[in-house]
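Re: that chain you flagged

S.,

Sorry for the slow reply, it's been a week of failed gels. I finally had a moment to sit down with the sequence you sent. For the record, here it is as I used it:
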Amino acid sequence: MKKILLILLMLPLSVQLSVAQNLKRANHLFEKRAYLNAAELYLNEEPKTQEVLEKLADCYYFNTKMKEAELYYKILLQIHEANVNPTYFFRYSQALKGVKNFSEADKWHQKYLEKKQMAPAEKQETLPFFSALNSETRKPYIVNKVSVNTKYSDFGTAFFGEQVVFSSTRNKGKLYIWNNQPYLDLFKGDIADNQDLKNVVPFDGNINSKVHESNAVFTKNGKTMYFTRNNFDSGKKKRNEKKVSTLKIYKAEFVNNKWTNITELPFNSDNYSVEHPALSPDEKQLYFASDMPGTMGSFDLFVVDINTDGSYGSPKNLGPKINTEHREQFPFVSSANILYFSSDGHFGMGGLDIFKSEISDEKFFAPINLSNVINSNLDDFAFVINETNEKGYFSSNREGGMGDDDIYRFTKEKTYIIHGLVQDKNSLEILPGSLVSLLDENNNLLNEMIVGDDAKYSFDIENNKSYKIKATHKLYVPSVVEFSSDAKGDINKNIQLLIESYDDAEQNIVTEAGKTQIKINPIYFDFDKWNIRPDAALELNNVLDLMKKHPDMQLKIGAHTDARGSESYNLKLSDRRAKSVLDYLIEQGIMENRLKSEGFGESQPLNNCIEPNMCSEDEYSINRRCEFVLTN
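Prediction finished late last night. Pasting the structure tokens below so you have them in one place:
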């Protein structure tokens, strides 16, 4: 009986030890990125704490198992919403897109932005998600799967003469702990007449090893290649202090009909990954993705100069126009100097989406989503295009594929272009920073861009349609030009956008001391009053007429007093007078969002009358004024 009692007393302790060991083992696997194995242990963990729910959901998220990820992120946020890091709002939104619940994804994306306390200008308009993304994006692509996809993972194409090189797990062997799939090798296939792939065989030479190889790029002469490989040392994987194997970019040379001289690039590290090489059109720069120190997100895009002696410069981050606090990977630069890349940080369909950004003088235009024809609600990546025939390939794990990842081929339909310059109407000086908007005949916004230092704009258009092109610039009168493309597309249409500054366009708008403002006769108020007198209303009607003539004009109404009276009293009085002018203009039909008001009291005199009893009435009256300063 005593033995039985002792055993019963020991059982709770043994159960506690077992539970603790189970969690420790799960966390160890999670740190090693053996996510699917870790998930099995987290599933059995009770109670499911906040940490367990976060890691369990992450295990599925990192393996694109969005149905399971969505479930556990939902449970996590139902219980711990007030305490979780904003990252989990973002991941839950992505998981919801992965199961095509776009309306709920929008809500959680907005919560994510609010939790991050992002400024309104940084927020991306997301409601309603699907129409907001796709109504503004041209979709000139016809997409088909290639026939050589397998039940395994096939992705990451690169042009290699008349062939395509890609990555695949189709070789059976040791499994990779991240996703329990075989290790990646490089394969090559011939390009068929219809752009499909055929005659697939393992890639030549000494490139494939016992670890991962993927994402190659080749010089035009076919003599040099760059590719991604795991840490590699005499056939053995290396791991950093976190026991995690990282990725590196290697270079190989084609000598005497074989790939040799395989060397890793000098900016690789055992402490972070460097992956997905891409060459610039002149082959003088190498683009890549990395999570090296200084990245803005989990992975950023970088570029490094390739010097004439074969050495390399210092990697440079592509900056906030391209990189976000999330993932940017799989760069490709076309012969037209357009950067294509994948991101889950820019506004997209879900998972990784493919974006494009034009490169000009080493600066990047705002990334454009390639629409729901190329992108899906899961991961879409590794886009490459031959600009000569406008055909190419990309990879995706979207529904309907054969394996975990599949290769898709696409043909880009012929596009038609509207382009030109934004210039000052009178001086013909170019106007960098202007906003150019493309609208349809019903004034629906189709696309827009802020022009760079060269003030050039360019948009794709469709044939046999009517459009409007609008140019705006701060302190300029917006200009709208209507045009149509004919049945043949009216290809390469050039429209010069000439806009006129307000102070050139209107006689009573002047620029003085750095302010562009409407000049009218002084507005007078009765002593200690702020109501609009009839004589003041007559002057304000001149402002009213200008605002009705220019519906984009926005004003800041500033009221000022002289130095007589206390400082605090004058500030309150000027505030009331400025607000009274604003209310008058609103009553006459001007929208409130076009107006701001502020009282400055006696703080901004136009002369030296800064004390009571030191000036004449006429001199004091100079400082009692209302200003109407243009703000856009």
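What I noticed first: The two ends are 90 Å apart (CA to CA).

Talk soon,
D.
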